[in-house]
Amino acid sequence: MKVILKLEYVAILVSSWFLSVYIGFSWWTFLLLFFLPDLSMLGYVAGPKAGAFLYNTFHHYAVAIIVSMAGLILPDNNLLLCGLVLAGHSAFDRMLGYGLKYDTGFHNTHLGVIGKSKQLGAQ
Asked: Structure pTM?
């Protein structure tokens, strides 16, 4: 099952990049914007609850879909690109095991524990 899920995430990532090129953006524009959603981690400066909320807002597929749909409806290709970047980035994170965060700390995700905490628990 793990392999199937990772293949799904790869498909979302590649599709997001392909669609960004298809709607007229250079191939490197998607790559340039790709890690911007990670700026949401700065929310952890205000604490784990605020950090989890902000991180999850920028890494949730529903938000990516809403932003993409807004770009289609308005029509605004820049907004559509933002939605595609959010979807592609979220898929990339999940492919690496970084899920949506619980408000108990950055290392607790819906996909399991990540980072040093996981290593310490394995001992």
From this structure: 0.90
Q: Which helix (H) or strand (E) holds 65?
A: helix 61-73
Determine the residue type at 9: Y
Q: pLDDT value at position 111?
A: 86
Distance CA 16, CA 88 (A): 5
For residues 5-31, give the mean pLDDT: 97
The per-residue pLDDT for 29 is 98
Sign for the CA dihedral angle at 29, 63, 87, 19 comes to negative
Beta strands in 55-114 (DSSP E): 108-109, 112-113
Cβ(15)–Cβ(66) below 8 Å? no
Cβ atoms < 10 Å from Cβ of 53:
15
pLDDT in tens, 46-98: 999 999 999 999 999 999 999 999 999 999 999 999 999 999 999 999 999 99
Report the DSSP beta bridge partners of residue 108.
Answer: 113
Tokens representing 36 are 């911007």
Beta-carbon contacts of residue 47 (< 8 Å; ≥ 6 apart): none
